[in-house]
Structure formats: C-alpha cells, structure tokens
Amino acid sequence: MLKKTLLFSSKCSITTRDNQLVINSEIASKTIPIEDIGFVVIDNAEVYMSITAYNHLIENNSAVIICNKSHLPNGMFLNLNSHHIQQELFKSQIIASAPLKKQLWQQTVKEKIKNQGLLLEKVTKKKNNFEFLRSKVLSGDTTNMEAVAANFYWKSFFEINFKRERFGNYPNNFLNYGYAILRAATARALSGSGLLNTLGIHHKSKYNAFALADDIMEPFRPLVDEAVYTIMQHYDEQELNTEIKSVLLQVLTRTVYFKEEKSPLMVGLQKTASSLQQCFTGKRKKIKYPSLWN
C-alpha cells in the first residue's frame, strides 16, 4: 500500500486516538489512520505533536521530519528497532570487507551517472558522453568519475548560469529541499531493512549520522533534479513556498521501474534497501537499483 506524506506548514496540534492521527487546526479537525502514513514533514514552529503521536508513528516505521527556520529539513525521527534480526544485520554491515564496499560504491556511481546522462538528454535534447564516463568507473570510483560527470552535468542542465552549492543561489534552495526529503526516504527504507544508517559504504564523516542514506540516494538524485527543472518551467517564484514544497514531496510517489514491475519511489527504495541488506549478508552481489524512466 502506498503510504501518505503529510506536510504541516501552519499552526496545529497533532495527537492520537484509536490508532488515528488527530489533527486540529484553527480551520478544521480531521483524522488519518496511522498505518497509512509514511512521512510527516513539520514546517512550522507552532506545530504541537504529542509524544504518544511520535511513538505511534515511529512504531509504524513512519519518518517524522522537522524543518528549520529556513524551511529546510533539519532532523528526523526513525524507528531504531524495525527489523527482527537487526543485531545480526548490523554485524554483517560492520564486518563488510573493503572490496565489497568498493564494488557496491562502483555500482552506485555507475547508476548515478547513467541516470544523470538520461535526464540530461531529455532536458537538452542532445546526446552526451555519460555512457562513456560510466564505463570508466573503477572499483571504489578511485578516479572520481562521479565528480567529472557532475561537473559536466551541472554546467549543461539549467538554462540559467548555475553553480551547484549547498548554500548557493536559486534553484539550490529547491534542490536542497528535494534532496533532504529523498535522504529521509532513503534512511527510512534502510532502517526498515535493519541496516545502520551511520555506516556508509563510501561516505565516512564522523559527524554524519546518515552516511549510508547519502550513499544509496545518489542514483535517485536526478528525480529531484527533474522535479526542480519542471517547477522552474511553470513557476516564477524563487523562494520555497507551500505549493512548491508539495510538488517536491510528490517525488516520493513518482513511479520507478524494475525489470519485473513498477512501483512508487518510496516502495522502490525499500526494494533497493532490501537488496543492499542481502549484499551485506552474502545473498546477492549487486544492489537492485530501478530504472528512473521507462
């Protein structure tokens, strides 16, 4: 079942009753079954949520995302006990060999470059050499083809003069919001598969609690890029507003394609996370990444 994503951008109180989320605002009151909720995004300092509501959501493996005063996702609550053999899976992840992690990172970078190349062709209507760049990715991406591809990609992607920066000018703010939501969705899927988000296969900063999510989300980033590109074609607004956030949140329900089936992104991420878990336990050799376009 496709889970709902809820965005709270105005003052309200959120409590629970009979396994329902009870939402009271100055305008209306409504209830939503907690089992139907995948993500809750809180983007207003005057939203009150009871501890009981937090606990019920987390027990349902729902991700609760808190935004800062700049309206960008700033923190997240996740279930820490979401898999029945979690300790065993943590151990497999901790003892994973360097060659295995390098191979998994190679696969991940190749998928990212492939997806960037496909989207760039869609946007520019021109052929590019991303398949060649993809073929040059070595184990562990030791020659950093990811950066080579990214440099060309961002120079060509937008019609405006653009530099991709975390705190840069528009449309960096749109990209940052979309990536933060994607990161949260990836972290939720990995946690649900019993994996420890802190232990990445490539990202290693001691300050990063979501290194594995940062690794695995890489091939999915072009979905956010595509959404931002589309927004720029239809909106003159350069600041994040509720409508644009809602459009970016729809990335979570965007269809992705596996060989045998298609599914919404939030379900596809669960399939990818499950395959990564199997790589760590020796049952698979490749991460199951979907095609982003049919």
UniProtKB/TrEMBL annotation:
- HAMAP family the record matches: Cas1 (MF_01470)
* Protein name, as recorded: CRISPR-associated endonuclease Cas1
Cofactor(s) essential for the protein: Mg(2+); Mn(2+)
Q: Which InterPro entries match?
A: Cas1, CRISPR-assoc_Cas1, CRISPR-assoc_Cas1_C, CRISPR-assoc_Cas1_NMENI
Family according to the record = Belongs to the CRISPR-associated endonuclease Cas1 family.
Pfam families, alphabetized: Cas_Cas1
An example GO BP is: maintenance of CRISPR repeat elements
Question: What top-level class of enzyme does the UniProt entry assign?
Answer: hydrolase
| Superkingdom, taxonomy of origin | Bacteria
Quote the function comment for this protein: CRISPR (clustered regularly interspaced short palindromic repeat), is an adaptive immune system that provides protection against mobile genetic elements (viruses, transposable elements and conjugative plasmids). CRISPR clusters contain spacers, sequences complementary to antecedent mobile elements, and target invading nucleic acids. CRISPR clusters are transcribed and processed into CRISPR RNA (crRNA). Acts as a dsDNA endonuclease. Involved in the integration of spacer DNA into the CRISPR cassette.
Question: Is the keyword Manganese in the record?
Answer: yes
Q: Which residues bind Mn(2+)?
A: 146, 203, 218
Print the keywords alphabetically: Antiviral defense, DNA-binding, Endonuclease, Hydrolase, Magnesium, Manganese, Metal-binding, Nuclease
Q: Tell me how this protein assembles.
A: Homodimer, forms a heterotetramer with a Cas2 homodimer.
Q: Which GO terms describe its molecular function?
A: DNA binding; DNA endonuclease activity; hydrolase activity; metal ion binding
Q: Which organism is it from?
A: Candidatus Dojkabacteria bacterium
The enzyme's E.C. designation: 3.1.-.-
Q: PANTHER family under this entry?
A: CRISPR-ASSOCIATED ENDONUCLEASE CAS1 1 (PTHR34353:SF2)
